[in-house]
Amino acid sequence: MGIPVIDFSKLNGEERATTMAEIANGCEEWGFFQLVNHGIPEEILERVKKVCSQYYELEREGEFKNSTTTKLFNDLVVKKSGEKLENVDWEDVITLLDNNEWPAKTPGFKETMAEYRSEVKILAEKIMQVMDENLGLSAGYIKKAFDGGDGDNAFFGTKVSHYPPCPNPELVNGLRAHTDAGGVILLFQDDQVGGLQIFKDGQWIDVQPLPNSIVINTGDQIEVLSNGRYKSVWHRVLATPDGNRRSIASFYNPSLQATIAPAPELVERSANQEKDHTYPKFVFADYMSVYAEQKFLPKEPRFQAVRAM
Ligand SMILES: O=C(O)CCC(=O)C(=O)O
């Protein structure tokens, strides 16, 4: 079993209704799905793979080998205590924004990643439009909610990760299980090295690598806006002994100033149901300060904490 694979190009043709329904099913039943024919040129994706791998080799590998994570891990291996490293991830990360200081030594990194980011942002906005329509919200509702009412202020960050080969993968997580804090996440994952899993119906299932596809998932803020119709889903990355897994996750999140609340249309509809499923209303910056402390814990106490603020 794998997560749904959806041909995004069919949104513009005779199969539009079926494709909309497939995306609705991906959001409601899975919280994760992957898009093929998503419109980002393969030529750009090939360059992204190349520059990210070169970047790791040239600018990160040495740092990872000397990192606290590696040191803690090596100490544990020597101790042979059978314990697992619980509070760290076997992951090397940098986050790219429009105005960050760009890695300097890797030829073409900045140009390629800036180009990729603008393509993937367009795709994120298209997906949000599909979600608006599937949820019965007005066109542009989610984007406007994320902009915080003050122009184009939504956060758009791209996290470049590598999960280097780990000699004892049973002793550490690649990335600990969590749900994502924000809005819509678009992941360009490694073609060859797997490891990403989602928790569904009581079991962990693999997000199957599919060359040049983009994996989409929804974060806690989409769960709130949709009043629980689209749930954020637990996921994790396993450490693996073979291969250096590369993943590039782009996060379309609310502005820190944005007020997030369930869309009133969706609350009215669920008011007819027996139980009140209404989610809280809060400022996203407050949510992020709770998330910073509780990322790897269940999300419900986070919703409770911001409700009480
Ligand atoms: O690297 C991956 O495949 C997943 C990354 C992720 O879940 C995250 O950064 O929140």
From TrEMBL:
<dbReference type="InterPro" id="IPR005123">
    <property type="entry name" value="Oxoglu/Fe-dep_dioxygenase_dom"/>
</dbReference>
<dbReference type="Pfam" id="PF14226">
    <property type="entry name" value="DIOX_N"/>
</dbReference>
<keyword id="KW-0479">Metal-binding</keyword>
<keyword id="KW-0560">Oxidoreductase</keyword>
<comment type="pathway">
    <text>Alkene biosynthesis; ethylene biosynthesis via S-adenosyl-L-methionine; ethylene from S-adenosyl-L-methionine: step 2/2.</text>
</comment>
<dbReference type="Pfam" id="PF03171">
    <property type="entry name" value="2OG-FeII_Oxy"/>
</dbReference>
<dbReference type="GO" id="GO:0009693">
    <property type="term" value="P:ethylene biosynthetic process"/>
</dbReference>
<keyword id="KW-0266">Ethylene biosynthesis</keyword>
<keyword id="KW-0408">Iron</keyword>
<dbReference type="InterPro" id="IPR026992">
    <property type="entry name" value="DIOX_N"/>
</dbReference>
<dbReference type="GO" id="GO:0009815">
    <property type="term" value="F:1-aminocyclopropane-1-carboxylate oxidase activity"/>
</dbReference>
<dbReference type="InterPro" id="IPR027443">
    <property type="entry name" value="IPNS-like_sf"/>
</dbReference>
<protein>
    <recommendedName>
        <fullName>aminocyclopropanecarboxylate oxidase</fullName>
        <ecNumber>1.14.17.4</ecNumber>
    </recommendedName>
</protein>
<keyword id="KW-0847">Vitamin C</keyword>
<dbReference type="GO" id="GO:0046872">
    <property type="term" value="F:metal ion binding"/>
</dbReference>
<dbReference type="GO" id="GO:0031418">
    <property type="term" value="F:L-ascorbic acid binding"/>
</dbReference>
<dbReference type="InterPro" id="IPR050295">
    <property type="entry name" value="Plant_2OG-oxidoreductases"/>
</dbReference>
<dbReference type="InterPro" id="IPR044861">
    <property type="entry name" value="IPNS-like_FE2OG_OXY"/>
</dbReference>
<comment type="similarity">
    <text>Belongs to the iron/ascorbate-dependent oxidoreductase family.</text>
</comment>
<feature type="domain" description="Fe2OG dioxygenase">
    <location>
        <begin position="154"/>
        <end position="254"/>
    </location>
</feature>
